[in-house]
Design goal:
The protein is mainly alpha-helical. It has one helix and no strands.
């Protein structure tokens, strides 16, 4: 039994047009949330590639600087930097 004593459902609740409109609204909301998630993912991926690019460029600059200044300095311990026979 329903609280009102009426065993038949309300005909307004089963209106196909109303149900279709509600479904359409729900799908529009989900589509909007999917698009927002896609945009966040795209931004994160772009930032990741940019960071990787900057790390690689920094490594190349460091290698260039080391090579242009004559290589790594010889340490005081270990093998001599230039041995004369």
């Amino acid at each position: 039994m329903t609280p009102h004593g009426n065993s038949q459902p309300d005909p307004r609740d089963n209106d196909p047009e109303k149900l279709a409109k509600l479904l359409e609204i729900e799908l529009m909301q989900k589509r909007a949330s999917w698009q927002q998630a896609k945009a966040r993912h795209s931004t994160l991926r772009t930032m990741s590639f940019l960071f990787l690019f900057l790390v690689i460029v920094a490594a190349f600059i460091a290698i260039y600087y080391v090579m242009s200044s004559g290589g790594l300095p010889a340490s005081s311990k270990g093998t001599p930097s230039s041995a004369s026979p």
